[in-house]
Amino acid sequence: MLIELRDYIEARGRVSMRDLAWHFQTEPDAIRGMLEHWIRKGRIVREAACPPCGSGCCNCDSERTEIYVGTQGAGIPVESVVGARISAQAPKRQAN
Q1: pLDDT tens digits for 73-86?
Q2: CB atoms < 10 A from the CB of 72, how many?
Q3: Nearest C-alpha neighbor of 68 from the set 39, 91, 88, 93
Q4: Does the model's pTM come out above 0.90?
Q5: CA–CA gap between residue 35 and residue 24 (Å, rounded)
Q6: Structural domain that includes position 80
Q7: Total number of domains in the chain
Q8: Which of 67, 58, 1 shows the shortest CA–CA distance to 30?
C-alpha cells in the first residue's frame, strides 16, 4: 500500500488527507504513518496547514487543508511545512 499511496499522490500532484482517507478507505492516522515514510525519503511533502481559502482563521476542517504533494516528475522545488525549499538535488559547491 505504500507504493500505491505514493503513486496516487504523484499522479494527482496535490491531494488532501480527506481524499486519501476516502480513496484508500483507511483512517487518516494510518495514512499519516505511511506518509511519514515517503516524507523522510523526500518523495512527498506536506504543504502548510493554513486554509486554502486564505482567510487565515484556521477554522477549516483539517482533513481538507492537510495537503500532500508529490515531488517527483515536476523537477521543481516544492514548499514544505516549515517553508523550506526542497529540491531533488542538493546545490553543488564551487571550488575556490
Answers
A1: 544 344 443 343 33
A2: 13
A3: 39
A4: no
A5: 13
A6: 2-86
A7: 1
A8: 1
